[in-house]
Amino acid sequence: MQLDIVVVGELENNVYILSQPGRDDAIVVDPGSEGERIKEALGGKKVAAILLTHGHWDHTGALQDFPGVPLYMHERDKMMLEDDFLGFAHRGHQQPRPKPTHFVREGDELALAGLAIQVLHTPGHSPGSVCYRVGDTLLTGDTLFLNDYGRTDLPGGSQTQMRASLRRLFTLHGCTYYPGHGPGGIIK
Known about the structure:
alpha/beta, Metallo-beta-lactamase, Chain A, globular, 6-stranded mixed sheet
C-alpha cells in the first residue's frame, strides 16, 4: 500500500491518501481543508471513497471539493455534519457538507480501492470516533495526536471512553499509528 500525507489547515490536520500501486483509484481520509492541494496529491487518481474518523470541521472542511464521492463515517457523528455548533464549523468555518452515504461500525471490513480496511470504534474524542486499520497501519484521527491523545472536553467527548479506547489501541502490537494532527506524525 502507498500512503501519502497532506498537512492542511490552521490546525495542521493530517489528510491521508491510501492507494495500491498500479491502480488508478485512492481513498482519502479526513479531508480537512485545501481541497485543491489534496487533489494535487492524488496525482490524477480517482477518489473511490472518503473515510471520516469523526465529524469535526477540521476533518471535514474540504468535503464539498469531492462531490458525489461515497462518504463513510460512524452514525454517532453524523449530526456534526448537520449542526455547525456540534461540528465546530460555527467558529468561522461554515462549509456546506454532504450527508454520509455509508455508516461504519465496530468490526466492519471495507473493501475499497483494492484495500481491506477494518473499522475500530474508538469513542472519547467524539461519540463516533473511529480508527481505520489497513494491515499494520492504523489511522487514528483525533483519538491520538503526535505525542498526545485527542481532546475530551468538546461536546460528546468522554475521558472515560477515551481511556478505554487508548487501552485498546495500545494492545495492537506491530502497528504504526498515524494521528489526526502532528505534521507528518508517525507513532511506532
